[in-house]
Amino acid sequence: MYVVGIIAVAFGALDTDAPVSLEAGIRVGLASVLCSAPAVILGVVGIHETARDPSRSGRDKANKGLVLGIIGVVFWVLAISALAGLAT
Question: How many other C-beta atoms are found inside a 10 Å radius of the C-beta of residue 69?
Fold first, then answer.
């Protein structure tokens, strides 16, 4: 659908690219929400696995995934609380 929207904008079928921007924003937002929590969980699992078996590699990647997942979760908590504050 996103590609169809870009093509429609390129050929002038839509007045502006605002609908495509909205759709892209929604897709990216949903993807980041759906990826932040698993990143935290899998980062913790990866850290425990590499600590238990020193022959396994990837502890640095697990740490990075954990940190980025926490940043994503914090961002979404702040964004949702800000939107809730605007709604009142």
Answer: 20
pLDDT digits (tens, 9 = 90+) for 30-84: 777 788 888 999 999 999 998 998 888 888 999 999 998 898 888 888 888 888 8
Give which of 62, 82, 80 is closest to 70, Cα–Cα.
Answer: 62
Domain chopping of the chain, boundaries? 2-87
Q: Which residues of 16-49 are buried (b: 16+ CB within 10 A; e: fewer)?
A: eeeebeeeeeeeeeeeeeeebeebbeebeebbee
- The tokens of 80 are what? 């949702």
Instruction: Tell me the backbone φ, ψ of residue 34, rounded to 5 degrees.
Output: -75, -20
Residues 6+ apart with CB under 8 A from 28: none
Q: Tokens 């605002």 label which residue?
A: 18
Helix axes 59-87, 18-52, angle to 10 degrees: 140
